[in-house]
Amino acid sequence: MELQTTTLPVTTDIQIIGAFILGVVGIEILLIFIGHSRKNPGSSAGWIWVFAIFAGEFTVGAIIELIALLLITDPITEQTFMNYFNVFAMDIECILLFGFLFSFTKKRRRPATLLCAGIIVGYLSLLAVQLLEVIFTKEIINMLGLDVMAAFLPTIIFPVMIAERLDKQAEIALMKNYHDIIIAMVIVGMGELLHFLPIEQALVFLGVSDGIVVFLSVFSRIAGIGLLFIGFYFMPYIEDLNWQRDLMAVYVIETNSKEVLYKEMFAENIGIESMYSGTAEQDHAILGSFSGLDDFVSEVIKSPGGNLEFIDKGGIKFLFARHKNLLFVATSKKNRPEIRAKLVDFGDWFFIHFGELVKNNILDPMKYVKAHDVATDVFKRTKI
Amino acid sequence: MLDFPNDLPLTGVYRLPLMLIDIGIVLVSLDVAAIYMKKSLMSKNSLKSTRIHAAWISLFLGYAGMEFWYWLADFYTNSVIERYHLNQFGYFCAATGAFFYIYYVEQLAFVSKRRIFTMMFSVLYAILIILIFIAFFIDIGTIVQYFVASFWIPNIGLLSRYLFMISKYSKGTIHATPVMVGLIVLILGILGSTDVMFRALGWPIRFLGDSFQILGTIMIALFSSSLPTWKELEWKNELDSLYVIYKGGTLAYEYDFGEGMFGFNAQQSAVVVSVLEASRMLLNSALKTGELKILDFKEKKIYFEPGEFITILIVAKTELDTINFLIKKIRKEFEKSFRDILPNWDGESDVFYPATSIIGKILS
After folding, report:
1. Does some domain include residue B6?
2. Which residues on chain B are in Cβ contact (under 8 Å) with A16?
């Protein structure tokens, strides 16, 4: 093996440049996650791990491909080398992601768990057969099923599935980013599809120039990974698990009567009683006073419709959102954008469903208990 | 042996490493543009912050564009003329980025009031466009290449002034020096990568120049995040009102910023601050979670700094670390200066008249 020194065919140049760019951008995406984890140790949600594993494999793949392209002059040898890499690296990614998928579905639906378990068993069997082939024949055997699963499940289908689910449940503040991530994954998928040997050979067989296929594949993957970087980097916040530890309680107050219509306590996070000095009535009186303060200041600065957004009371922070005569209050240990975004979304939902009741001055808290399911969904459940 | 840049495209042992380093420069400059883009999106309610970020974005996008065309010219052209034409696209990108950079930075009044750099650069930019246009039809040698060198004068001039002003406004506490070092490294790198330097010193200087460009860009990206936001630098403009409230809620002193809180007269202000102080006391008595620090309304942030006898209340447009620091300092100075009066204050505000110069000194 020696370093390529002369002018290379344009397709090889494109592949080298592509692998380099994909490697660099992949490292940058990984750095975003690493930076986040270092800032908030132990807080990474499952979806962060999925994309970190994806970016890790993608990056290692790109770097290995770059090294192979630079050092191995014979294209057949280079391709064989990459096949070996696929078996030992992409398959590791597959197993890691399957593990996550299994634990994720286990918490939810039985059919999904069974399906997932079936895929894992099938995949591991195929992998075992291929490994045995390698051991006994000393050659890599092309196994279409395994290759397809190794190439598409971890790199495309599974992350797209996760992104799609995140997008469905996203707060308004994050929706655009998840849209970008889904589009990015689809574009990367198209690039991967063109990079997949049987597809590449089929297109060449149909008369498409090899150079064009290589260019489109590299270009799609670069565009996709670039958009993925933009999607993650420009996220207003990376939704981890920390906000759940910080959130203490959520209240809905009717501002005219100062009545607390609904409250959801997250007492498992803290000894909430120690934060408040008095009884539930006193707590409600304090919350009512926020509503009064908001109205007062709104009137003073001639800006009706609610202005109070945040109160820093030392160890406890109050975050506010307002919808007409409803004041939504979240108490938290930290002023976190995630909690604010969730409060706003919960407020929207609450107003849509209970706005009429409030308008008709029905202030019995029992009428609002149905909000519990949504509050649990918004504030308690880890999305993924 | 290849006689680059006369023999094209660039081949040989240096081709691949140089090609990848050059792509690295483009990627890193795009990253820096992305960093400023994010900063700009996060400070969208501040026109000045947005402008200064737009300045950096255009500078680094222009730089990335320039490097891209240079890369294409060095590795994928077959003649000096072709390379020269592609390089001109690079000059155009760099000049456009630099033009918008200068335009945005000079909009910040305290950097330069007369727009000298914008005017100077506009003239150079117009000449460059004409020269590039002519060069596509007539062979005018390397005039464009040499002319571009003149752009360094307004660029370096404005950059130096801008960073000097940052250091000055932030009273030397801000880390402008590493950014300045990063810029110098970047500029040295660009100079090291020029044909003139290459002809004189050969391949080592080209590699060194390219590496310096990456290093300089990374340094700027890393250290520019430690530069203060423009809001922090201009904290004075964000202050709205300052009140000293005696225990129990009586307005003891109001620092005159001109209009005062919400444009109220003294009596109205007294009522409002009393209500705010009452709210603070209510919260403090009900919730044993530390002192109330801030009430954040959409357009106004109300800072509280309670002492033994008084509470300082500042109303500002934004939440800034600088104001947190100042309010503590003001409370301490006020308590120190009036320690004999405060325990038994008789309600007469005139005794606090000297506070104007004390607070004025702190705020200046």
Report:
1. no
2. 16, 19-20
- Residue A45 distance to chain B (closest CA, Å): 23
Residue B1 domain flag: no
Tell me the per-residue pLDDT of A154-188, one tens digit each, with 9 for 90 and over.
667 777 877 887 887 777 888 888 899 999 988 98
Going from the C-alpha of B57 to that of each of B39, B52, B157, B223, the distances in angstroms are 10, 9, 19, 16
Whole-angstrom Cα distance, residue B21 to residue A52? 26
Q: Do B190 and B151 lie in a common domain?
A: yes
Nearest to A309 by CA among A322, A296, A325, A295: A322
Cα dihedral A184, A189, A191, A192 sign: positive
Query: DSSP of A336-370, one letter per residue?
Result: -HHHHHHHHHHHHHHHHHHHHHHHTT---GGGGTT
B4 occurs within a structural domain:
no
Tokens of B275: 């209500």
Q: What is the predicted pLDDT for the residue at A133? A: 72
How many distinct structural domains can be found in chain B?
2
- Domain end (from B168, B199, B229): B229
Report yes or no: B297 at the A interface, CB cutoff 8 Å: yes
Which residue in A has a C-alpha nearest to residue B37's C-alpha?
A234
Phi/psi for B307 (5° steps) reads: -120, -160
Instruction: Report pLDDT for A4.
Output: 45
Strands B301-306 and B310-316: antiparallel
